Amino acid sequence: MAVDITLIPQQASFVTSTARFPHFIGGIGTGKTYCLLLMCVTFAQKYPGAVCMIVRKQFTDLHDSTLADFTKYFGLTVDTHKQVIFENGSRIMFRHGSEIEVLKNINLDWCGIEQAEEFSDDTQFNFLRDRMRGKAAPYQQIALISNCDGHNWCWRMWVNRPSSDDFFIVTATTFDNAINLPAAFIADQSAREKDSPRHFRRMVLNDFSEDLSDDLVFKTTDVQKSTKLDFKLPTFTRYVAGLDVGRFGGDASCLVILAQCGVSKWRMVFMEEKHEWSTVQVAGWCRDTWKLFPFDTIGVDDIGVGGGVTDMLGDSNKFSVCPFIANEKPNGTSAYTNKKAQAYFKLEEYIAKEYIQILDDIYLHAELSTIKYYYRQDAVKHIVGKDEMRREGVKSPNKAEALSIATFFADYEDVGSVGFEVIPGENNRTPKDFQRYAITS
Prior knowledge:
Layout: H1 9-15, E1 21-26, H2 32-46, E2 51-56, H3 59-74, E3 83-85, E4 91-96, H4 97-100, E5 110-113, H5 123-129, E6 141-146, H6 153-160, E7 167-172, H7 183-195, H8 197-204, H9 220-227, E8 239-244, E9 252-262, E10 265-275, H10 279-292, E11 297-301, H11 306-313, E12 320-324, H12 339-352, E13 356-357, H13 362-368, E14 373-375, E15 381-383, H14 386-391, H15 398-408, H16 412-416, H17 431-437
Parallel strand pairs: 1-6, 1-7, 2-4, 2-5, 5-6, 8-11, 10-13, 11-12
Antiparallel strand pairs: 3-4, 8-9, 9-10, 14-15
Helix pairs in contact: 1-2, 7-8, 10-11, 12-15
């Protein structure tokens, strides 16, 4: 039985797309779920023997929302194996995030990811991408729907830097679909512009701005502005390093090096990660990197296995090793609960005041966008820890952590207090003294 359906232009553009990776990012009430399920059913009916799958991160959301909507919209019954089999041999499977990685031997013709922003990164998308090897249709497709969520992985891959025309994006605000929504609902969402402006911008106007969350430490506009600074490296440069030591199997160790370009100017000149390296390997890597960027100070994440790296580097007569104990209380009265919070907010200050030029690295920027804080009962700021982030499905921010440690030990005020000009070969200064104090060319 044929059914006539009227879609607004944005919905029609998404539903009829044959691009490999179409993505509908829209405000609440824009019909995203209906469009995704409609694409799936249409594909399954059109191409006999097609293997299709709908994915959502959490089982409860999959069961209570996605499956319920599917039955309501199309009157199809999902069996106990969480699938629907059509008379033409096509089937639609419903899976949640932790289930899809066991499907390593399956070939898919079509896949839909609902609420893609619920996934913390592109890991599941890329896993499914490798499964798109079906032959039942003339094209294979992963269709995604999501609410905008700042500069997350969806924004990076479809809005900011799509790698090819395969990445097709459709966007819509709540008001674009007003013809299909109750007038009272539209009026209520309009009222949110005054009583919930951040919610209104993100969830109604589909605004990708990164600063719509009150608890984020870094503003995306400041981070992007920092990458566009053009600090010139002086002839003789002082370097400071920060090392975050990985403590878990999938956790990486990251080394960041800053170069001083003036009394209050720093430029990020090096950032590298090493996965699953031992403390001996990490220490050797730092020593080798010193040959390229002879830092006089390195701050080392000193908790857990990081203490071993601190000990191994501590016997060097080429640079000073400063243990960074994240949960240690700051000296004196402080607005922060510990050194970790103090370091991150110092980095935030440097970025906001244009004291530092950071690398234009999308993964570093993504990590900075995940750093959150909250106020403790004693009105001091506390950074959400790595363990808390992992429980929420957010990867460890190794690059951001190393950068914050390097910034913590980049004390330009000490250099600025020097009251003389250093000239090579004069003043009986050693090369290391010259390296430390010659901050202009």
